[in-house]
Design a protein that fits this description.
The protein has about 210 residues and is α/β, with parallel strands linked by helices. It is built from seven helices and nine strands. A five-stranded mixed sheet has the order 1-9-6-2-5. A two-stranded parallel sheet has the order 3-4.
Length: about 210
């Protein structure tokens, strides 16, 4: 009962914040290109864990099934997301990961894109895990690096220095160039794509430091 009450309180707070934010989408042509590559306009988006608050809210009520852990925190986030028009897939490297990856690949066939915090759920920060590369290869979809970064935010004292945009923040959503994984990719080659994702996301981080125009 207490957890349910907490969920509704958090949802109300998140909804109010979302209504106050002003979003600006940059290089949307890259998002369109990613969608056009995959069957049924599906793709998989890659972002850092500390940017997922703004990243999720910037894509409400879209055909979008982000991956979320089966932890207690994940239960809370999933509750909020479902009420914001986002249906998450639950799983992580430690719990239900294989089943979640299978579900994501199946969802691609129905036109649902996904998103993964590539350094989550426990870090190290800014270190890309290989799972997203394997999912993109198996689903034959493009990887779209992106970051939703506010001009002002609170930073939590967590492993990833998690960011929560402050009320009335301006959030710029940066889309990097699509990354296409070869169907013939073997496990030993996945690190090459992981490096490409990391480089693209760090470029986005640097771009976000430039003043808003």
């Amino acid at each position: 009962m207490i957890f349910k009450f907490t969920c509704y309180v958090v949802y109300a707070a998140v909804r109010l914040l979302h209504l106050s934010y002003r979003y600006r989408y940059i290089d949307e042509v890259n998002k369109v290109s990613s969608e056009e590559y995959g069957a049924n306009n599906a793709m998989i988006m890659a972002t850092w864990h500390n940017n997922c608050f703004g990243g999720i809210l910037a894509h409400t009520f879209q055909n979008f099934n982000p991956l979320m852990s089966k932890s207690k925190d994940g239960d809370l986030v999933a509750f909020v997301c479902e009420r914001m028009g986002i249906a998450p897939v639950r799983g992580s490297s430690s719990r239900g990961g294989k089943e979640a990856r299978e579900q994501i690949v199946e969802n691609f066939k129905r036109g649902y894109s996904s998103a993964i915090t590539v350094d989550g759920p426990k870090g190290p920060i800014y270190e890309v895990k290989m799972g997203i590369v394997d999912i993109a290869r198996r689903g034959n979809v493009a990887i779209l690096p992106f970051g939703a970064i506010a001009d002002r935010y609170w930073t939590l004292k967590s492993w990833d220095r998690f960011r929560i945009p402050k009320p009335f923040a301006r959030i710029r959503v940066f889309y990097g160039e699509p990354i296409v994984v070869s169907l013939g990719t073997v496990k030993e080659q996945q690190g090459v794509y992981a490096e490409q994702i990391q480089k693209a996301l760090m470029i986005i981080e640097a771009s976000a430091k430039r003043p808003c125009k």
